[in-house]
Write a structure and sequence with these properties.
The chain has 467 residues and is an alpha+beta fold. It is 12% helix and 17% strand. Among the domains are: 165-207 and 251-396, Lipocalin, CATH 2.40.128.20; 415-466, no CATH class. The longest helix has 15 residues, at 228-242. 47% of the residues are buried.
C-alpha cells in the first residue's frame, strides 16, 4: 500500500503516528502535582523514535564539546529509510518536493504532506549537507539522491500541545498562585530553608521525549502548531537549509541565541543553578551565554502591552518572576525578544512561558535532580500553547573538584554572510558587508535577497516581532 498524504496539516500531524500511539502515559514524580489545575499532567508518549535521515545531530545526540558546562554526548546511530536515490518501500514520492522545487511559496498545498520533505525530520533537513559532523545525506546527484526519513514515524501532536485549559501565561500563573494560596502559600523561604538545589546539572531525559530537538518529528506536525505566517517562516528555513544549503544560524555570526534555544539540545546541556531566598540564577552556554534570573516574590508591571519588570524593552531571555509552593518553584517569563531557533521555528515578542520546577528523589529518598515542565504561550506564532518536559540531574556541587568555573563566552565573529552564504573570513581579508536589520529577521533578509529571485512570497506581515 502506497503512502499518500495530501491532507490538512492537523491530519498529517496525527495520521503518521503508528507504533508510538499505544505507549503508556507518564506522570510527574510529585503525586500532589498530578492533581493540580496547571502542572504535572501526564505525558501520553514517553519514548523517542528518531525519524531521520542522518546521524548524531539529526537523531538526538550532538557529540559536541563546548563550555565547561558541556559534556560530549554519545553518538546516535545513523537512521535513514532509504539512501542514494532509493525510495522507502510502500512510499510513492511526489513529483515536486522541497528539494527540487524552485518556489516553495507556490507549494503551500504540499507543505502538509511528509513526502514533500521526503519524510525528513526538521533537524535532518538542517543537517543533510553535513552539519553536526554527520555523514552527508544529499548523495552524489542532488536532489535525486537525497536520503529519506521514515514516513511511518512521528511524535504526535497531542503529546506536544498543552493539556491545560489556559489561554494565556498570566491566567496559568495566577491559577497556580491561587492554588498555592489556598494551601496557605506561597512558601516564604529564608536562606536556611530554601531548597538546596545549588549545583551543576546535566540533562537526563529518559521518559521525557525532547521533541524540541526536532529529531522525532515530521515537519507537518510542527507546522500544525503554527499560525499561517509562522508556517511560512518555518518552511522558508527548511527550504534554505535543505535545498539552497544557505543556513543562517545565529551562532555562526555571533548573534544572540534567543529564549527558545534554552530548550534546544545543542545550546544547553550542563548548567549551573544558584538558589537564594530572593533570586534563582541559571547559567549555561555553548555558543552564547545564557543567564536566566527568577525574581522571587516580584510582580510583573502590566502597564504596557507586554508584562515586564524593567523598562518597556524586550529582553533576549525575558523577565521572570516566581514563587515557591513548598519545594516546587513556579515561574512566569514575559517581555521576550522575538527570534529564531534553527531547525525548530521562530517565536515572537508575544512569547510567554510558565515553568514548574519540582525536585525528584532517588529510591533512597535523596535529592537527584529537578523535573522541569514548561508551557509556552505565543498568540502570534502558535495556534495553541505547547509544552516541554525535561529532567536535570545534579552532577556536582559548584565547588567540587570536577566542577570548573563557568567560562564566560565572548564570540569573535569569523563567519560573515557573503552572497547569502555563511562564509569564513581570514584575518586581514577585506570584504563588502551590509549590516542587516537585527530586529527584522536578518536571516530571512539574506534568503530573500540572494536565494529567492523569481519566487512568489506572500505579502509581508507588518509589525514583525511586535515592533
Amino acid at each position: 500500500m502506497r503512502l499518500k498524504c495530501r491532507n490538512a496539516l492537523v491530519i498529517a500531524a496525527s495520521g503518521v503516528v503508528l507504533a508510538m500511539a499505544a505507549l503508556p502515559s507518564f506522570a510527574q514524580d510529585s503525586d500532589s502535582a498530578t492533581t493540580s489545575v496547571g502542572r504535572g499532567a501526564p505525558l501520553p508518549v514517553t519514548e523517542e523514535n528518531p525519524v531521520g535521515a542522518g546521524g548524531p545531530g539529526a537523531n538526538g545526540a550532538e557529540g559536541n564539546v563546548g563550555n565547561a558546562n558541556v559534556q560530549s554526548a554519545a553518538p546516535a546511530p545513523h537512521v535513514a529509510a532509504a539512501q542514494n536515490g532509493d525510495v522507502p518501500e510502500g512510499v510513492e514520492p511526489l513529483e515536486r518536493d522541497i528539494f527540487n522545487s524552485d518556489d516553495f511559496y507556490a507549494d503551500r498545498d504540499l507543505w502538509s504532506d511528509p513526502r514533500y520533505y521526503r519524510c525528513n525530520s526538521p533537524v535532518a533537513l538542517e543537517s543533510l549537507w553535513g552539519a553536526y559532523g554527520n555523514r552527508t545525506e544529499t548523495g552524489d546527484n542532488f536532489p535525486e539522491t537525497v536520503s529519506w526519513g521514515y514516513c511511518d514515524r512521528d511524535y504526535p501532536r497531542e503529546a506536544i500541545v498543552s493539556p491545560y485549559e489556559f489561554k494565556t501565561a498570566k491566567e496559568h500563573y495566577e491559577a497556580l498562585l491561587a492554588e498555592t494560596e489556598a494551601k496557605g502559600g506561597p512558601t516564604q523561604h529564608t536562606m536556611a530553608t530554601v531548597p538546596n538545589w545549588t549545583g551543576r546539572y546535566d540533562e537526563d531525559n529518559t521518559g521525557y521525549p525532547q521533541w524540541f530537538h526536532m529529531h522525532i518529528n515530521q515537519v507537518p506536525t510542527i507546522l500544525s502548531l503554527l499560525t499561517p505566517e509562522y508556517q511560512t517562516r518555518a518552511v522558508q528555513m527548511n527550504y534554505h537549509q535543505a535545498n539552497t544549503n544557505a543556513a543562517q544560524w545565529p551562532s555562526s555570526y555571533c548573534w544572540p541565541e534567543g529564549l527558545m534555544r534554552w530548550w534546544s539540545r545543542p545550546a544547553v546541556r550542563m548548567f549551573d543553578v544558584m538558589v537564594t531566598d530572593q533570586k534563582v540564577l541559571m547559567m549555561a552556554g555553548v555558543a552564547d551565554n545564557f543567564m536566566r534570573q527568577i525574581m522571587i516574590g516580584k510582580e510583573m508591571n502590566e502597564d504596557g502591552a507586554i508584562p515586564r519588570l524593567g523598562e518597556d524593552v524586550p529582553r533576549w531571555y525575558g523577565d521572570t518572576v516566581g514563587f515557591w509552593d513548598e519545594d516546587a518553584l513556579i515561574t512566569w517569563t514575559s517581555n521576550v525578544q522575538g527570534w529564531t531557533t534553527h531547525s525548530a521555528f521562530e517565536h515572537s515578542n508575544q512569547m510567554q512561558v510558565v515553568e514548574i520546577y519540582t525536585p525528584r528523589n532517588d529510591e533512597n529518598g535523596e535529592f537527584e535532580g529537578i523535573v522541569h515542565e514548561a508551557v509556552f504561550y505565543d498568540p502570534e506564532a502558535l495556534v495553541e500553547p505547547i509544552r516541554i518536559f525535561r529532567f536535570y540531574k545534579k552532577v556536582a556541587d559548584l565547588n567540587a573538584p570536577e566542577a570548573q568555573p563557568y567560562v564566560f563566552i565572548e564570540c569573535i565573529q569569523t563567519i560573515f554572510p557573503q552572497d547569502g552564504v555563511a562564509t569564513p573570513v581570514s584575518p586581514g581579508q577585506t570584504i563588502e558587508y551590509t549590516v542587516p536589520d537585527m530586529y527584522g529577521r536578518p536571516w530571512a533578509q539574506f534568503w530573500s535577497q540572494f536565494h529567492e529571485e523569481g519566487m512568489t512570497p506572500p505579502e509581508a506581515t507588518e509589525g514583525l516581532f511586535g515592533f
